Structures are given as structure tokens and as C-alpha cells.
């Protein structure tokens, strides 16, 4: 933060106690500390950084670009095969996952400040999970036609199925959680028109996400997979946090080795997932070229304000009286 402020100070020619503020699309402000690091990778999806003096903070409002798209991109990606979309999403996710250093899990769990290290790659990978989730909600809520919305649900369920087939559990879960977002699951007219075959698939996918018995369904599925695998990262983080907060690091000034072993086991899962190289070969393509699909999945525009998504959802399907 200190570096960003000094770079801006040179440009503005005034250094009167400038502050760096993270402003999200809902208008919530977060004052960043001068010693904070890797701020760009830890921004919210449509968040922006603003430099201002203390008396200007109240006047800060989100930029129009922070609102996200005003129209869906279905006309673009309905021409792309679901398998191709899932493949290119998996390629991108693998790139991000492959960059995450095992130590970043440790820094994230025990607190970066203790290590004076960044978790930039992990931040970007977790942010991608949120982005894919919001992409699903954004596209559905920006689709005014009922028949097109049904097509969209089918498309997303197909993409999720292919992600699962490619062992990309991160995007698989992101898509299913996007479909389970309150703004999407309340669209009863849309879900009613979904063919029963797709309802069945979706139900099975939801069962995999069932958190009961410590995510037993997911863990059993994971245990059967051979690497390379892109794991459901938020759960790995949750496991680490749970282990850390539920167990003392020291007991009677001695290191709690049982806790360290549990932490190491979670890190080992990540290592196992990456123990085989990822096959880059693309599936046989129909319709749009690989370049188009690759470009699309890497630059998806989303609305990240839940209130806006909820309003859009009520506009396309008002509550039944």
C-alpha cells in the first residue's frame, strides 16, 4: 500500500496524508493499512482501488464499470460446445492452481502478517471460484426470455458435468453453487420447464456438495480420482482453518505435532492433485474456434452485487401472488 500511495503521490504532486481505499461494487469501503501487501490479487471481483485524502472518503462512489454487464453473453457462448467451454475453463483453472505454492496455504491459515509473505496466487485462484459462480448467476438473471433461461440452465449443467469429467472439481462446484444462488433457485417457472433428465443430473450434483458428515460425499468421490485433479479449494482452506482454530499450536511450550500432522495432510492432498502433469489436448471442436472459447472463459464479465442480482431475478420472474 505504501508503494502504491508513493507512486500516485509522484503523479498528483501532493502527498497530504493520502489513503488507499478498496471500494466494492456495493459501495462498501475498506481502508487499507500502509503495510498491507498483495492488494491487487485480494480485491473483490469488481472492486477498485482509490487514493484520496481522509476528507474525501465519504464522496467515493463506485464507477459505472463496477456494476458489471447490463446484458448477458449467452448469444456468444451458446455457439460454443459445453465440452469445449469446460476444457478451456479447466486449462485456465489448472494454470492458476499450478501457480499456488503449498506454503501459501500455511500463510493463509496462520496469518500472512506472521510470515511477511503474500498469498497472491491462492487469492487469485479463490477469486476465480467466486467469478465462475457469479458468471452463472449473472447470465441467468440477465436473460429475460423464459425459454432461453431454460436453455441456459441446461448449458450450465452440461458444462458442470464436463468439468467433473475433466476432474476440475473447483469449477464444477462453482457452477453448481451458482445455480443454487437464491437469485437463481427462486426462478420456479424456469426450473419447472427444465427437462427431468437435467433435474436428475442437477440433483446428483447437489448431493455431491452435501456438507453433512464433513462433506463425506465429496471426500469419497475425491478418494477415487487419480491425478491430475483440480480440488474444491474452499474446502481445503476450510479444513486448514478448522484444524488451526480447533487445536493449540503449543501445549506447555511444546509444539503440538498432532496438529502439524493434520495440517501437513491437507497440504499433501494438494501435492497429490498435482503429482501428474495436466493433459493440454483440446476436445474435437464444433462451432466457435478454440481461440474464441479461450478468450471468452478468461474474460467473463459478472455482476458481483447480490442485491442487484436479486432485483434482476425479481424483474424477470416477479413473485407469484
Question: Can you describe this structure in just a few lines?
Answer:
The chain is mainly alpha-helical.
Secondary structure elements and pairings:
Elements: H1 2-12, E1 18-23, E2 29-31, E3 48-53, H2 74-77, H3 82-99, H4 102-110, H5 112-115, H6 120-141, H7 146-165, H8 169-179, H9 182-185, H10 188-192, H11 196-208, H12 212-223, H13 233-246, E4 250-251, E5 254-255, H14 257-273, H15 290-298, H16 306-316
Overview of the structural elements:
By secondary structure, this protein is mainly alpha-helical. It contains 16 helices and 5 strands. The strands form 2 sheets. Strands 2-1-3 form a 3-stranded antiparallel β-sheet, with helices on one face. The longest helix has 22 residues, at 120-141. It is globular.
Q: Report the order of strands and helices.
A: HEEEHHHHHHHHHHHHEEHHH
- What structural category arises from helix and sheet content? mainly alpha
Oligomer state equals single chain
Record field, number of beta strands:
5
Helix content: 55-70%
Instruction: Give the end-to-end Cα distance, rounded to a whole number of Å.
Output: 51 Å
Count of DSSP H/I helices: 16
pLDDT < 50 stretches: none
Strand order of the largest sheet: 2-1-3
User: Taking Cα atoms only, what radius of gyration do you get, to the nearest Å?
Assistant: 22 Å
Compute the average pLDDT. Answer: 93
Largest sheet geometry: 3 strands, antiparallel
Q: Beta-strand percentage?
A: 5-15%
| Mass-distribution shape | globular
Amino acid at each position: 500500500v505504501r508503494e502504491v500511495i508513493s507512486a500516485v503521490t509522484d503523479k498528483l504532486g501532493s502527498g497530504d496524508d493520502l489513503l488507499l481505499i478498496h471500494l466494492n461494487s456495493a459501495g462498501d469501503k475498506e481502508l487499507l493499512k500502509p503495510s498491507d501487501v498483495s492488494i491487487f490479487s485480494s480485491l473483490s471481483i469488481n472492486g477498485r482501488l482509490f487514493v484520496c485524502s481522509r476528507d474525501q472518503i465519504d464522496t467515493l462512489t463506485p464507477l459505472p464499470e463496477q456494476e458489471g454487464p447490463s446484458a448477458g453473453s449467452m448469444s456468444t457462448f451458446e455457439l460454443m460446445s459445453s465440452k469445449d467451454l469446460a476444457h478451456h475453463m479447466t486449462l485456465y483453472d489448472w494454470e492458476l492452481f499450478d501457480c499456488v505454492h503449498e506454503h501459501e496455504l500455511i500463510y493463509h491459515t496462520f496469518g500472512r502478517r506472521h510470515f511477511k509473505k503474500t498469498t497472491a496466487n491462492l487469492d487469485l485462484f479463490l477469486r476465480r471460484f467466486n467469478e465462475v459462480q457469479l458468471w452463472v448467476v449473472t447470465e441467468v438473471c440477465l436473460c429475460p426470455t423464459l425459454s432461453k433461461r431454460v436453455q441456459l440452465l441446461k448449458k450450465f449443467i452440461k458444462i458442470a458435468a464436463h468439468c467433473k469429467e475433466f476432474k476440475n472439481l473447483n469449477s464444477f462446484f462453482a457452477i453448481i453453487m451458482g445455480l443454487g444462488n437464491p437469485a437463481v433457485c427462486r426462478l420456479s417457472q424456469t426450473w419447472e420447464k427444465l427437462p427431468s433428465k437435467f433435474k436428475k443430473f442437477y440433483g446428483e450434483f447437489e448431493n455431491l456438495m452435501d456438507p453433512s458428515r464433513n462433506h463425506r460425499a465429496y471426500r469419497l468421490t475425491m478418494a477415487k480420482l487419480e491425478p491430475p485433479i483440480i480440488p474444491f479449494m474452499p474446502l481445503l482452506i476450510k479444513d486448514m482453518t478448522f484444524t488451526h482454530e480447533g487445536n493449540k499450536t503449543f501445549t506447555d511450550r511444546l509444539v503440538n505435532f498432532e496438529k502439524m500432522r493434520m495440517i501437513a495432510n491437507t497440504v499433501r492432498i494438494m501435492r497429490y492433485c498435482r503429482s501428474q502433469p495436466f493433459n493440454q489436448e483440446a476436445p474435437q471442436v464444433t462451432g466457435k474456434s478454440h481461440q474464441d472459447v479461450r478468450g471468452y472463459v478468461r474474460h467473463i464479465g459478472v455482476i458481483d452485487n447480490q442485491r442487484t442480482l436479486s432485483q434482476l431475478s425479481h424483474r424477470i420472474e416477479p413473485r407469484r401472488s
